[in-house]
Design brief:
Elements: H1 2-7, H2 12-18, H3 23-37, H4 42-59, H5 64-67
Helix pairs in contact: 2-3
Amino acid sequence: ELVMLIGQGLSNRGIAERLPVSARTVESHIYRAMAKTGTTSRDELAAVLDLFSHRQRRFGGVPEQLEAIGD
């Protein structure tokens, strides 16, 4: 859900307002997701996760770098 909100262009504060977490928690989750996917920006993370979503809908597969996000 957090990544979908990133993809919509929301700031950390905007995401925190929609979810029951602080902006600092949002920042932490984004940092860990970027580290696990090897991305270096919010836009790149959103693009990778959009690709994941498309691939999962089309093929049912999960790219290896995204399997670790939930860990």
